[in-house]
Design brief:
Layout: E1 2-10, E2 13-22, E3 24-28, E4 52-59, H1 62-71, E5 87-95, E6 98-101, E7 106-109, E8 114-118, E9 123-125, E10 132-140
Antiparallel strand pairs: 1-2, 3-4, 4-10, 5-8, 5-10, 6-7, 6-9
């Protein structure tokens, strides 16, 4: 987890609303444009329609991930980890090396590398023996977007 500081307005003055550890950092929606503390945690993959989701994802080694997916089905995620979301994602590798697997190619990423994931089918492969952390901002796109 990382430290998350959330601000708010109290009587026209800025103040700290909360300060503490979090992984699923913030979520916005058309009903809550300034956002709210995610109550659904990491269990929900996509942001609400018209919203965004800001989170830190810890990707375990590939063999662990495959075992978890085999034991617990995640809606929208195949047993091999492949998934597609109706979002544009800005992903920054915080630490470690990870492979972004696409339908026809794979790209090895290192700490400090970033990805702009544009609603395409993909899977994350951690071929190492330690978890890799990714910082991701997911923004919902109009379902009519091709």
């Amino acid at each position: 987890m990382i430290r998350r500081v959330v601000t708010h307005d109290v009587g026209g003055r800025s103040a700290v609303r909360s300060d503490g550890p979090a992984d699923d950092l913030w979520v916005t929606s058309s009903d809550q444009p300034l956002g709210e503390d995610p109550s659904d945690g990491l269990a929900v993959l996509e942001p609400p329609s018209g919203g965004s989701r800001f989170r830190v994802v810890s990707v375990p080694p590939d063999e662990v991930m495959r075992a978890v997916l085999a034991a617990h089905a995640v809606p929208g995620v195949g047993a091999d980890g492949f998934h597609r979301t109706r979002t544009i994602d800005y992903v920054l590798v915080l630490d470690g090396d990870i492979t972004l697997e696409l339908d026809d190619e794979a790209i090895v990423l290192h700490a400090g590398d970033c990805v702009v994931q544009r609603g395409t089918n993909h899977a994350w492969r951690n071929l190492g023996d330690s978890p890799v952390r990714l910082l991701a901002v997911m923004i919902a796109v109009d379902p009519r977007t091709p």
